Amino acid sequence: MKATKIIQLLVIALAITMVGTGCRKKQAGVTPIRNRDTILRDPGIGGTYDPNLNPIGSESPFDKPQSTKFSNPDDFNQDRSALAANTVHFEYDSSVVKSSERGNVEAVANYLKSNTSVGLLVEGHCDERGTEDYNNSLGERRATALRAALLDLGVNADHVVTRSYGEYKPVATGQDESAYSQNRRGEFVVLMPK
Fold first, then answer.
1. Is position 84 within any domain?
2. What distance in Å separates the CA atoms of residue 157 and residue 136, rounded to the nearest whole number?
3. What is the number of alpha carbons within 13 Å of residue 21 lying toward its C-beta?
4. How far is CA 184 from CA 24, 84, 123, 161, in A?
């Protein structure tokens, strides 16, 4: 009888401990640090970003706020076909733009520099592995890395915005590397006034 009560108390204590550590609240007054090191690029695309060279508070094109004109992509006509051939693919669990994708990024940059009245939505996508939160974050890091690469190539920062879809818009079904590699991507959507 005593052993049963001890076991019940231990189960209750364990449950309380799990609930207490699983739902921590954000501390008041603590500002999350932007993950600036996720903008790392292969030297083939404008060098490597070193967060130590641009301490917080210094001027950097990567810190420039995203456009107010194009900040709501849903307010614009969206052309997904214009730059569809320039989709960029990523390695597993990476937001580094590979040098093998340089041609795609340069083609997008040239298009934007030749069409100065349009905007660009850069979408970050992931394969299905990982948690929802992690994939949303990784998708955003991928989109941000592509935006940074475009800025390095002289694209107007006011015309480029990012969005993450995480794992929710796969282009390939299946649970093998062939499908996964197609879903780890960054897509470019041209934004035009309605």
1. yes
2. 22
3. 5
4. 31, 15, 11, 19
* Residue-by-residue pLDDT tens, the chain, 194 positions: 666 667 776 667 666 655 444 433 333 333 333 333 333 333 334 443 333 333 333 344 444 455 568 888 888 999 999 999 999 999 999 999 999 999 999 999 999 999 999 999 999 999 999 999 999 999 999 999 999 999 999 999 999 999 999 999 999 998 899 999 999 999 999 999 88
71: in domain:
yes
Containing structural domain, residue 89: 67-194
Number of domains in the chain: 1
Closest CA to 128 of 182, 178, 180: 180
Tell whether 114 is covered by a domain: yes
CATH number at residue 158: 3.30.1330.60
Q: Is residue 29 part of a domain?
A: no
Residue 76 contacts residue 192 (beta carbons within 8 Å): yes
Between CA 87 and CA 159 the distance in angstroms is 18
Task: Give the integer Cα–Cα distance in Å for 45 and 112.
Answer: 17
DSSP state of 41: B
